[in-house]
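thread: overnight batch results

M.L. [08:02]
morning all. the overnight job finished for the chain we discussed friday. pasting input first so we're all looking at the same thing
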Amino acid sequence: MTVSGSADLLVERDGPIATVVFNRPRTRNAITYAMWNDLARVTEGLAKDEGVRAVVFRGAGTQAFASGADISEFQDNRKDRATSLRYNEATSAAYGALRDCPKPTVAMIHGFCMGGAMGIAVGCDLRFAAEGSKFGIPAARLNIIYPPDSIGHLVDLVGPAYARDILYSARTVSDREALAMGLIQRLVPAEDLERTTYDYLRQVADNAPLSVRGTKLTVQAYLVGFTPESRGRLRDLALEAFESEDYKEGTRAFLEKRPPRFQGR
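M.L. [08:03]
and the structure it wrote out:
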């Protein structure tokens, strides 16, 4: 395993799986302005890295995925219109990089997942959580209007009524309720969360990268609404997949009754 990144935002590599770690356990991994900027840069870099086939986002330790944005910074970094615009640009870039990442992304959640951290989690493709996890967006207690794209992601996951409930009330949602409403896809004992997450992603990483990427792009295009342009791009991707070396490898492996060895080309 290799480790890079900054002290507060670590990047760990283990074969084809990268893990981004919010590394401020003393503050329940609260996300600073610098971390928002780093998150955009790191996610964009992993998206371009051909050796990465899946990305996990997690918090250091087991107390929190992240407790949200570091509110102690708001008196300086979010004190007026100009600083709020700058701060919002940083968070928007981070959310955008996550949304546009072509690799499968999973939020692995221990403990608290609140505020801006919920924005990160709902921006991932999937959310796997440990029993006892807690979720919430307390924006209404701070007089903050949540970003439109993040609200849209939440609506896509849980529907408009639950999204309104979570945002209007600013309440904390329990692990069982989060599972029932579709906010998370796996709920497992805390000691099983890492194994469950990484076993799943190793299975994903063994599959054909072009096929997985095409599926992700198709789902995204469906959610925003198919257009003639997006349908054309998806059709071209499907044809490229049929012409790829991986398609030949997949059919050979099936006929030879062996696991395929996909190269992403």
